[in-house]
Request: fold
Amino acid sequence: MAALRVADRRPWTRRSTVSSCGRRRAKLPPMESSSKTTEGQAAGDRRPIAARNLGASAALADWLIRRRASPNGISAAGMVSGLMAGLALAGTWWWPDAARALFLAAAVFIQLRLLANLMDGMVAIGRGVASPVGELWNEVPDRVSDTATLLGLGIAAGSPAWGLAAALAAMATAYIRATGKSAGAPSDFRGPMAKQQRMALVTLVAILCVFVPRGWHPELALWALVAITALAALTALRRLHGTAHALRTRA
Reply:
């Protein structure tokens, strides 16, 4: 009678279990989810955000992870917050009597959008999930939110054209980063007017407008848009130069 095989020595075997009939059966390792660590972000290719290291951020991410929150759902919630911020900013021009409350609401929605941007990646890593459309959820909500917020600020300034200019300049910074990444360069998050700086400036202007005279609102919004447009254009040029250098070095 042939001797029983003691263990399956194939390289994928982690341990063996004995079946009821006496033969040993290899236990397969757990399935790997995907080559991507997060939905749309590799672990070593993430935007540097200081708030990610705060205890409060980790506690909130842990709370969401324990409730099995969807990273894509968090991204969608962030996009809704960005749209609401844009509507609130535009509403300051349409309903000037409610301008102070609307500016305050816009500031809150902008921060909720940024919080969602922070949480989606942390939750994806914490849950160990990945999605074939994760890269789309990583990029598209941000572009929608930026455009809505800056166009809304343009309406608040009485100059939709400057709002559009700022939105296009912001989109150029993201386009160059994404194009460089697809070509094999590291993601370039340099400023001086990256997403965090743009939204920080809009938030600051919104909060100022809660307290200053109503006649100052359009002027403050306009100056913010001019600064965002000019510095985002500079950011796009810096990223283009840095990405080209990275690709040449890699070649």
About this structure: The radius of gyration is 24 Å. Residues 51-250 form a domain with the Four Helix Bundle (Hemerythrin (Met), subunit A) fold (CATH 1.20.120.1760). DSSP finds seven helices and two strands in the chain.
